[in-house]
Specification:
With about 300 residues, the protein is of the alpha/beta class. The chain has 2 domains: about 5-165, Multidrug-efflux Transporter Regulator, Chain: A, Domain 2 (Orthogonal Bundle), CATH 1.10.1660.10; about 170-295, Cobalamin-binding domain (Rossmann fold, 3-Layer(aba) Sandwich). Helix content is about 60%, strand content about 10%. The strands form 2 sheets. A 5-stranded parallel β-sheet has the order 4-3-5-6-7, with helices on both faces. The protein has a two-stranded antiparallel sheet with strand order 1-2. The N and C termini lie far apart (about 55 Å).
């Protein structure tokens, strides 16, 4: 069972630490254990209850009422509320609970309902992206059990692959092809898969190489297919200098290609690097960039 600090609960639930303390003292919503130095520690059950309370409180139910309900009653009310709303914060918190419970049925149901209501792309942008950003930060600090993160990542990966397979395979020439890859130490491919989906949907040919691609293999692939566009993503912790060095190496090695890069770690870079590199800030930004390719 994972152990969380009050700061972790604040990050995961969106409830300020000060408010959590008040709810503990006044209503007994959760009762943390304490270390010998009197630091609060919470477990998965505490987090699940707080997330359920947060959802219902956001939906208008008073804390004084929620404090009297059992965990099963809270869960039942959350299921009812979730079926009636497309509020992204509520859905994100529900996904968090399904991750903690390793509940595949619930995870898939939340995703499917959201896709029906707001569409696949909007679900990814407004729900899945902030969800994985939230747990990704805590995973890197060791607050989240890696097995839980892998569980939901693989479920979502399946959804992305199905969506990609549902797009017609482009038959354009190599100059309108994108090579998508991750560097040798990068394994987080969900963002790159989503950009693959967007490219396929917009009629581009994609050559998806996936995780941990050796640099020499990348050279061979580029020689074979002559694609003019490349894309990579950086999620795993990487020093800013190492990131810049890698991107500059790509730019020097593939001067004829335009290299797009994105991901959480890419936010570290504020200046323009080599002329043939472009940072992608969001899915909307990327769609504008690839529309310009078509216009040109």
């Amino acid at each position: 069972m994972a152990s969380y600090s009050i700061k972790d609960l604040e990050e995961l639930s969106g409830i300020k630490a000060h408010t959590i303390r008040i709810w503990e003292k006044r209503y007994g919503i959760i009762v943390p254990e304490r270390t010998t130095t009197n630091i609060r520690l919470y477990n998965d059950e505490d987090l699940k209850k707080l997330l359920n309370v947060s959802i219902l409180n956001r939906y208008g139910l008073k804390i004084s009422h929620l404090a009297k309900l059992s965990c099963s009653d809270l869960k039942e009310k959350v299921i009812h509320v979730s079926s009636e709303t497309s509020d992204s914060e509520i859905q994100i918190e529900n996904l968090m609970i399904s991750m903690l419970e390793l509940d595949e049925w619930k995870f898939n149901k939340i995703l499917s309902n959201s896709i029906i209501k707001i569409g696949f792309e909007e679900t990814v942008v407004s729900i899945m992206h902030p969800f994985f950003e939230k747990i990704g930060l805590l995973w890197q600090t060791g607050s989240i059990n890696p097995a839980q993160e892998h569980f939901v990542s693989n479920l979502f990966r399946q959804k992305l692959i199905v969506a990609i397979d549902g797009q017609e395979t482009a038959t354009t020439n190599d100059t309108e092809s994108f090579i998508l890859f991750l560097h040798e130490n990068e394994l987080h491919e969900l963002g790159l898969l989503f950009y693959t989906y967007l490219l396929r949907k917009n009629g581009f040919r994609t050559i998806y190489l996936g995780q941990a691609v050796p640099f020499d293999d990348l050279r061979k692939i580029v020689r074979i297919c002559n694609a003019l566009y490349m894309m990579t993503s950086f999620t795993t912790g990487i020093a800013e200098k190492s990131l810049k060095d890698y991107l500059n190496r790509l730019a020097r090695s593939f001067p004829e290609q335009t290299i797009y890069y994105t991901g959480f770690q890419a936010q570290k870079i504020n200046e323009q690097l080599a002329e043939n590199t472009t940072r992608v800030g969001s899915a909307d930004h990327f769609q504008k960039l690839i529309k310009n390719i078509r216009r040109n």
